[in-house]
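Hi everyone,

Forwarding the result from last night's run.
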Amino acid sequence: MKKGFLLFAFSICVILLHAQSFKKVFIKDSINDSGCFLYSWCDFQFKTEFSQDSSLVFESLCEKDGLNYGVISIKLRQPFENLDQAQESLIRYLDYLKTNFKITMSAGYGKGHLLNNNENTRGIIDYWADSDKNNWKIKGWTNRKYIGILYVYSPKELPESKLNIYLDSFRFPDL
């Protein structure tokens, strides 16, 4: 655990030394607040809508240095009974996004990740390619009450260490 934290802290320092502003971003709009937040180089402007099951969905996209950063945060109307159900729901949502984002290739879901080493969370990672020749890296997170999806895409090669800091920065309100 210490090793992971030290690597995370070192990575943050390296990125901050490159004169980019990595800041806390609250996931909210002018009316609704998800309670969730993330860290990013972008200034996100969130739009909200309700899903078919009346869950509140926050969504935003921004571009910085040739990389497109996206976030989708869902405040679930009805929490899942357990993390296995929540993870399966996250997978279904990622499958839905593959269609919307015109994904043509997928490495396959890597399951069982923990957000900030918290046993009450589950995460999924994947690498995609779309019909416009963009490379994608995506991570989805859930804690039974919320789903958070962070992704980055670009036609150029993705800088893994920089992306991992962003993709692992999502935080639920109760963590």
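The first helix runs from residue 2 to 17.

Cheers,
N.
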